[in-house]
Amino acid sequence: MTFTQAAGLGVADELALAMPGSEWWRTAVIYQIYPRSFADANGDGVGDLPGVTEHLDDLQRLGVDAIWLSPFMTSPQKDAGYDVADYCDVDPLFGTLDDFDAMLSAAHARGIRVIVDLVPNHSSDQHVWFQEALAAGPGSAARARYLFRDGKGESGELPPNNWESVFGGPAWSRTTNPDGTPGQWYLHIFDASQPDFDWSNPVVWEEFRRILRFWLDRGVDGFRVDVAHGLIKADGLPDYTPPTDAASMGGEESDVPYWAQEGVHEVYRDWHKLVAEYDGDRALCAEAWLPTIEKTALWVRPDEMHQAFNFEYLQTKWDAAALRAVIDGSIRAYGAVGAPSTWVLSNHDVVRHASRLALTAENPQGYGIGPDSPGKPIADVGLRRARAATTLMLALPGSAYLYQGEELGLPEVIDLPDAARQDPTWFRTGGERYGRDGCRVPLPWTAEGAAHGFNDTGASWLPQPAEWAAFARDVQQADPRSTLNLYTRLLELRARFSLGAGELEWLEGYGPDVVAFRRGALDVVANLGDAAVELGAVGFLIQSEAFDGTAVPADTTVWFERA
Ligand code: BGC
Questions:
Q1: Which of 79, 84, 229, 259 to mutate to test the pocket of ligand 1 (most atoms within 8 A of CB)?
Q2: Which of 122, 252, 272, 520 is the most buried (most CB within 10 A)?
Q3: Is 508 a residue of the active site?
């Protein structure tokens, strides 16, 4: 069955699909669902797939084109599901494969496409392959699927090299032999429970082809590929010391022997061909943290992935010149390889943009913010900037990613009790980095009621703060000025004016603190400065903040049609 039949798309959609360069992912607004925090149908305190199905109508009302689900596969949940023990089954925490199929067809019936997360850099240490590797011993075929090495030092007591885990501490752990003596070491760029695969082994390639087909055959519309820059390691695994305060996931200028090695591109060329065998423009989106847009664009050359997250854009400060540069550079760099740019402001690994855009101290990705962090944001400033930033972002050509809860204007939760924290980063750095829990707190659906409507029981795997009531979806639905209504209207207008496609023309003359551009019949003006910017007599189609008159106040974005 083709997707178009499954989704019941109309004639216009069929025609659009037939036109080269008009694939859905080029312009789509894709909403990230972090399943454990979205909606909890069975009341155990962790969100689940039936919870997603129950709320698809809300997402349809919001106006998104697709959803991306963070991992829901079988996992001991040491890294919130990014430690997969069985790639082809659903963890009982989230439901069953039948629940997945039901969710997928309910989404398709509403014209919403579904992307799933694929984690190819590492598995869980509970994956049958890793357990076999431990049992089989050095030199075995089972160990050759991961990166086992003898240690250095007289009796192998030192790790094979000096690499550090993204989550802090060494990237190697030592095994224990069946007789209790210390054995070989294995590489884990992330937590010790996440051993890295050896992608120089064809068996690993074969296994991932099988996994891709498993989900494609079920009908998914694509994959978000986790740590897409990490699969291949430099020959000989040479020592490497990252700069102090480097962003955890990479992105530094120097050559890093475990990021962005040339060989990864062969993997995605292979997957490109495999995915192309399926109908319906299935897509691959790279999560690759790289130092420049030009480098990220290498992941979306015509025979590789279809999209890559634009983390350069996400990491740009609230500064007009910097934003103009990154937008211009993105359109140019991705355009040069025939790919759309993507745009993203928040996800489950970064401080939510309603807080991040008002931080006054450096905060590298992965560090998080907590009670003792320097430069904590002022909530009102953050929310206002976030609304302006999203209003700007959703006018840009290409595909935009939203992270669940940003449509409610949720801030980062800063004061989680230490005892509640679950991110491995918190544990592996001995509390030095707060990590990512603050952006993962379960969503508030209702102001009243248990767990603010996240479930019926009040259980919540991370505690929701008292102020969640004010952010609840039901309260916002009733308030025309709410962030939810702003997002809904933005998506409606973005679709009406086909803003995902077409050219962007810069508008000059508004001063250094303004980002202004033309998108067909629409002009977009974002004022990032402190002083109001006078526009003259225009009728605004949308304003990120309500104001009277024609002078756009600080931290506000407007869209208007030219007379
Ligand atoms: C995911 C993280 C995860 C890591 C290891 C990523 O970049 O987005 O949440 O911890 O990969 O799988």
A1: 79
A2: 122
A3: no
